[in-house]
Specification:
Strand content: 15-25%
Mean pLDDT: 95
Largest sheet: 8 strands, mixed
Distance between the termini: 27 Å
CATH topology: Rossmann fold
CATH architecture: 3-Layer(aba) Sandwich
Number of domains: 1
Low-confidence stretches: none
Oligomer: single chain
Structural class: alpha/beta
Length: 255
């Protein structure tokens, strides 16, 4: 489905009925990473899965390299669909966008789940690496970065082949979209204080074998609030929605 909002033609899918739960994908991915999980639990929630700005089938529009713009896109989509309140789950980059939305409009949230994501700002070294990757993507294409990114998203020590569809999505991701969001992520602030101010339930989910994000950093979001709950999934890497979709779905529909 397409929602024409602001400067975007935003592609999204909806599965199920009931309380709305928005699922925000990670860097160089699209809504399809959630589909198996959403189809399985469609009798327990309404899953709204957008392609974020510059990803999948959603155009880049007048991008300004800010997470706040991505957050506004989701609020606009919620308005378009008539959802004054909703729950929100963000994977990795999607978690950064979810926190930007939580800062802008906390009154809209019934719950926040951070899936292999965190609330910290980048270190200076990580920020510099992101900005360099943004330049490289524009100069050489995302294929020059994709294989390394795919391998890092796999569980540490995992010898199985990565998900074929996921590889196709990453390899065909937009250079301009990738560069825009990498700049946005690089410039994000520390949002741990935002988490402390929230009064909705917060779920932090870590992968025990995540190569990208240490478990303690992934779980610290939930430790900032009395409304927090933290779960580490043993043996799982950065993509629990693909590795253990039924486990992740059970956690998301029950938080």
């Amino acid at each position: 489905m397409i929602a024409r909002i602001s400067d975007l033609e935003m592609n999204y899918e909806i599965r199920g009925k009931g309380h709305p739960l928005y699922l925000l994908h990670g860097l160089a991915l699209d809504h399809s990473i959630w589909l198996e999980m959403a189809d399985y639990y469609a009798d327990q929630a309404q899953f709204i899965m957008p392609d974020l700005r510059g990803h999948g089938q959603t155009n880049l529009g007048k991008a300004d390299a800010s997470l706040e713009q991505f957050a506004a896109d989701i609020l606009n989509l919620a308005d378009h669909l008539g959802h004054s309140r909703f729950s929100l789950a963000g994977h990795s980059m999607g978690g950064y966008i979810a926190l930007a939305l939580a800062e802008a409009s906390p009154e809209r949230l019934d719950g926040l789940a951070m899936v292999t994501s965190n609330a910290r700002a980048d270190t200076p070294e990580k920020r510099a690496n992101r900005l360099e990757e943004a330049k490289r993507a524009l100069l050489e294409g995302t294929k020059s970065i994709a294989n390394t990114l795919i391998q890092r998203m796999m569980p540490d020590g995992e010898f199985a082949q990565p998900d074929e569809h996921m590889c196709e999505v990453v390899l065909n991701s937009s250079e301009e979209g990738f560069a825009n969001v990498q700049r946005a992520i690089a410039n994000r602030p520390n949002r741990l204080p935002v988490v402390k101010s929230l009064t909705c339930p917060i779920l932090a989910i870590a992968g025990g074998n995540d190569q990208i994000l240490p478990v303690d950093i992934a779980l610290e979001t939930a430790a900032q609030t009395p409304f927090g709950r933290k779960i580490c999934l043993p043996g799982v890497g950065h993509l629990p929605m693909l590795e253990v979709p039924y486990t992740l779905g059970a956690l998301l529909v029950s938080f």
